[in-house]
Structure formats: C-alpha cells, structure tokens
Design a protein that fits this description.
heterodimer; A: mainly beta; Deoxyuridine 5'-Triphosphate Nucleotidohydrolase, Chain A; two-stranded antiparallel sheet; 11 strands; 12% helix; globular; B: 3-stranded mixed sheet
C-alpha cells in the first residue's frame, strides 16, 4: 500500500468490526470527544458577533467504557470514532440510525461528506426525547452512505478554502470564516437604515 | 497540599491518548498498580510523579494511621505549556520509573550486583584523599541519587526504545561546567542511553536511518572537572553501569526490541505521513512506543537527519496531536479485540 494508494481509497480508521460495512452503508461509532455549549443568560446567539466572551463552549473527553448523559433538549457536538478519508471519486451522506431516532436522538444534521474530505466527522447530537439518554463512545451512532461520482471532482474538499481540514476531533462552528459576507450584510443593513441606499436600488 | 489535585480527580479534558500512555506505563513499571491523577504543571513546567500516599505518609504515621490500600494515588505532572506532546512522552516514562525504583528497592538491588566492588571502594578512597572537604556520607548519598536517575533513564529506554534518546536529547538541559547536582551530567546520560540502546540491538536501525544525529549524540561530552567528588561520581557510574542495565531489563513487563518494530515501521509511517492516525495495522497490535518511534523516524525522514530535527519535531503541535490520536485509536482497537 503506497501513500498514493491511500489517497485513492476510502479510509475508515479504525474499523473495529467488519460487520460495520453493509451492502450500501458503513456504520460509524461515537467518538470520545465532545463539545458542550453552555446555557447562558443571553437573549440570542448571533453568529455575526464573533469572539463573544459570553459564548462558552467546553471540550470534554469521555474515554471508551464511560458514559455521557444527554438530557432532553440538550445539544452537544460529538465526533465519529473513525477517521475518514474520502477519495476524489466518492462522496458520502451521514444518516441517523433509525434505532436511535426512535429513542429520540437526532444525529448529524449536517450530512454531506465532500469528495477529498479527511478527518473525524462532527456529529450534531440532540436529545429530542423526554428522558435523559446515556451515550457511550464506541456505540454505532450513525451510518455513512457512500456514493460514486461520475468522474473525479477537480475541486477537492482539501482545497485551500475548506474550513475543516483533517480534524481529529469534533469542530465548533466556523461561521466566522464567512466574516466578509457577514460584514457585507451588516453594512447593507446600516446603509438601508441610514438611507444611503433604498431597498429598490 | 492535596487541594491542587482534588479537582483533577474528575477532570474531563485529558485526551484519551495520554490516558493510554499512562496506563501503559503503569502496567509496565508499577506491578502494584496506581490510581493516576493528571496535573498540568504551570508552576515548574516539568514532567514528574508524586506518590500521594508516600507524601502524606509521615502525617498519617503521626496520627497513628497508615495508608492501607496497596494501590496508591500517583500524580502525573505534565508541563503546563505543552502537556500533550506525544514525542516527549518517554520523559514521563523516566518519571514513572521513580515510584518503580522506590517500590522495588531497585537502587539497593543495583548495588548488590556491582561487578567489582573492590575497584569502587578504591576509587572512593583515592578521591576522598584528594578532596579538600571529604564527606563519605554525602558522596554516597549523591551517588545513590545518580543511580536512581540512571535506573529511571534505563527503564524508560528499555520500554520506549530510541524515542527515549530523542526525547532526552531534546529535553535535557545544557550542561553547566563544575556543577554537581542530583542528576548526572546530561551528556553522560545521553551516552548512557546510547550504550543501552546498543545492548538492546537498536544501533543498526539508528545507523541506517539517522547516522548524523546518532553520531552527534555519541559526540556529546562533558569534560572532566578538577573536583575529586565529580571524579568519584562519574567513575562510580562507569563501574555500576552494567548492573543498572541488568536491573532495568529485568524490571519492566515489556522490553521494546527492534524485532517488535521492523515489520510495523513502514505501515505505521505510511499512515501518519498521509495524515491518517495509525490506529490499526492488520494482524498486529500497535503499542504506544512503536507508534511514537515511527513518528520520530518519520520526522527525521521529512526534516532531515540533523540534531535540529529534535527541536523542530517536538514543536510541531499538529503532528503531535496526530500521534496522540494514533495511540488512542490503537488502544481502542486493542481493547475491542481483547473483549471479543
């Protein structure tokens, strides 16, 4: 196996059990690292306000064999146990496993895995049920459906502007990297309010 | 005294890779086991261990009590500025050696196995006569401290292989002429580790991959000072070395040998070089030290066979995170396979 060979292959590391690979999907397991967003006495979370000192996240580690309790309505970012390497001729979609969905766990609202992506996948976990739920690293938490592209993409996710290159743990929102567009929207709002421009212009 | 560590008992911010390394060190060096507490040392920025049961033992005795549990709470200090540096973890192996040396009375065991006690006593006599303020007790106490430190270097080298040489060459301070302290001179310690690696069969691997850096390590030299005390200590260490090597090899549950690494080196390196954590190689169980050594050798391959690589590799934060992730995944894969 050469480094070039690895780039051409779908990488799932580690694959703890061959039974994770199904006819059309691969079961992914819950990883050991999480990001909890703390409840704050704030009216709103505005992503345009960057570096808000009152916006607090806490990174926590739950080793294999231990548990994380997700309370009703609680939102936490988790990651897959597996590091994925998606070659340029494939893409993927992360889906909820129905077993978890029927218990009220919503997994992975941001589902698409781009060609060329490599890293741990961030999973958005929400307990939509009425009782606290015990999550354990190592559990099969989601499934990855892999699709073949018609030909290789020329613009890989490894392209320089990609926000989440080879992450090894769950990643927080990086809406801040769209700062130029947010600034533009703020300027538009300010210009409209001051009358510098009319809406119909 | 215990307050700084109480909160750390339930801390949830330690990467799993670090726990895997610490569990590995406890398994290998502390047969009586230990309850690990991890402390990020912002005060001294050092690697260290502290057996809390021993530390409070005097107070307990004064109160007419004793710590009866065979499993001691042990604080593992990691430097606060860079606690998760994977390439420097062999230094932590040295520190875990200290409770191992104490619990096993390895210092005394070493002294019992000195090849030529007569020569040692002759050396002591000669140096005491040449000293302006001879003090047999102090000299012997300092020799015992030096033996303990070299035992810890030897235990770490037996367990982690050449990674201990690279970590020590990076981490040990520059020598100060004429200053005799609780530790042997860094150049002597590096030479000691090189010699032990040769006994363990690693020279061929190192000569093939990084001859320049290896020769630089061999060339490190602390000039002999005029102090008779120094002459005694360094001469005594030369006489006692074979016993230290023998004791170290007998007191780990695992000796990392080149044969354990040869077939794994390329697959691990290939994965890490591709940016993929090396959590699995089909048919093999990956140890933290095989992964760490492969990572070090990859750094020499990418950055060049030169002593400066020892510094630039350690400073590569993202690379070190990848190595820790590899150790975590390998540990999880091993646990999973064992509970099948």
């Amino acid at each position: 196996m050469s480094a070039t060979g690895l780039a051409e292959r779908l990488v799932v590391m580690p694959l703890l059990d061959d039974s994770q690979v199904g006819p059309a999907s691969i079961d992914l397991r819950l990883g050991t690292e999480f990001i909890e967003l703390h409840r704050l006495e704030r009216k709103t979370l505005d992503p345009v306000v960057r570096d808000d000192p009152l916006f607090r996240e806490e990174k926590i580690v739950v080793p294999l064999g231990e548990e994380l309790i997700l309370h009703p309505g609680q939102f936490v970012l988790g990651g897959t146990l597996e590091f994925l390497g998606m070659p340029l001729h494939l893409c993927g979609e992360v889906l909820n496993r129905s077993s978890w969905a029927r218990m009220g766990l919503l997994v992975a609202t941001a589902v698409f895995v781009q060609p060329g992506y490599s890293g741990v996948l961030t999973l958005e976990l929400v307990n939509m049920g009425n009782v606290p739920m015990t999550l354990r690293p190592g559990l099969r938490i989601a499934q990855l459906v892999v699709m073949r592209l018609e030909g290789k993409t020329e613009l890989s996710y490894a392209h320089k502007d990609a926000k989440y290159r080879a992450p090894l743990s769950p990643q927080s929102s990086r809406l801040g990297s769209e700062a130029k567009e947010w600034d533009r929207l703020l300027r538009i709002g300010a210009a409209l309010q001051s009358g510098q421009v009319e809406k119909g212009d | 005294m215990l307050r700084p560590y109480v909160q750390e008992v339930v801390r949830r911010d330690i990467p799993v890779g670090i726990w895997q390394v610490i569990d590995n060190l406890i398994d290998a060096l502390l047969p009586q086991r230990a309850d690990a507490v991890i402390h990020f040392d912002d005060d001294h920025n050092m690697y260290a261990t502290l057996d809390l049961a021993t530390a409070v033992g005097g107070t307990l005795t004064a109160l007419g009590r004793s710590y009866d549990d065979a499993v001691h709470p042990v604080v593992f200090f990691l430097p606060g500025s860079d606690p998760t540096n994977a390439l420097l973890m062999p230094i932590l192996a040295h520190e875990v050696g200290h409770p191992a040396v104490e619990a096993g009375n390895l210092g005394s065991e070493t002294l019992k196995r000195i090849p030529d006690v007569t020569k040692l006593n002759q050396l002591l006599d000669e140096c005491l006569k040449a000293a302006s303020t001879p003090s047999t007790g102090q000299w012997q106490l300092q020799l015992a401290q030096w033996i303990d430190e070299l035992l810890c270097d030897a235990l770490a080298t037996v367990l982690t292989g050449p990674s201990m040489l690279f970590a020590a060459a990076n981490f040990l301070p520059a020598p100060e002429l004429g200053s005799l302290r609780t530790h042997p001179f860094p150049a002597d310690r590096i030479g000691f580790i090189v010699e032990l690696l040769d006994l363990l069969g690693w020279t061929h691997t190192l000569d093939a991959r990084l001859p320049l850096t290896l020769n630089w390590c061999r060339s490190l030299h602390q000039p002999e000072g005029p102090d008779p005390r120094e002459r005694f200590l360094r001469g005594a260490v030369r006489l006692i070395k074979p016993a230290i090597f023998e004791i170290a090899r007998a007191h780990t549950t695992y000796v990392f040998k080149p044969d354990d690494f040869t077939t794994l080196a390329d697959p691990i390196t290939e994965l890490i070089e591709s940016g993929i954590p090396s959590g699995q190689v089909p048919g093999y169980e990956l140890t933290p030290w095989a992964i760490t050594l492969a990572a070090w050798l990859l750094q020499f391959k990418l950055r060049g066979d030169a002593p400066r690589t020892l510094a630039t590799a350690v400073a590569d934060h993202e690379f070190n995170l990848l190595v820790h992730k590899s150790i975590e995944m390998a540990g999880i894969a091993k646990l999973w396979a064992k509970t099948r």
